Amino acid sequence: MAGSRVAHATLKGPSVVKEICIGIVLGLAAGGLWKMHHWNEQRKVRQFYDLLEKGEISVIAEEE
């Protein structure tokens, strides 16, 4: 009775090129989200100062 052959998965080491590509993609995605957040905050600040300059809002509480 001959030993039956079982197909075993051969483990290979991590692919350096694949790891670099995944890192670049994740870095660009995170950087894009951070940049969008930064632009949104910048837009809010610019809008606030535009309204302040027009006199539509005030930072001083009105006395009653």
Describe this structure in words.
- There is one protein chain.
- With 64 residues, this protein is an all-alpha fold.
- Helices cover 61% and strands 0% of the residues.
- It contains one helix and no strands.
- The chain starts with 15 loop residues before the first helix and ends in a 10-residue tail after the last helix.
- The mean pLDDT is 88.
Write out key terms for the chains shown.
single chain, 64 residues, mainly alpha, rod-shaped, COX5C
Q: Helix content range of the residues, please?
A: 55-70%
How much strand? under 5%
Q: Ends: how far apart? A: 101 Å
Query: Counting H and I runs of at least 4 residues, what is the number of helices?
Result: 1
Order of helices and strands: H
Protein name: Cytochrome c oxidase subunit 5C
Keywords: Membrane, Mitochondrion, Mitochondrion inner membrane, Transmembrane, Transmembrane helix
Subcellular location: Mitochondrion inner membrane
InterPro entries: COX5C (IPR008432)
How would you summarize this macromolecular structure in one to three sentences?
The chain is mainly α and 64 residues long.
Describe the SSE topology.
Elements: H1 16-54
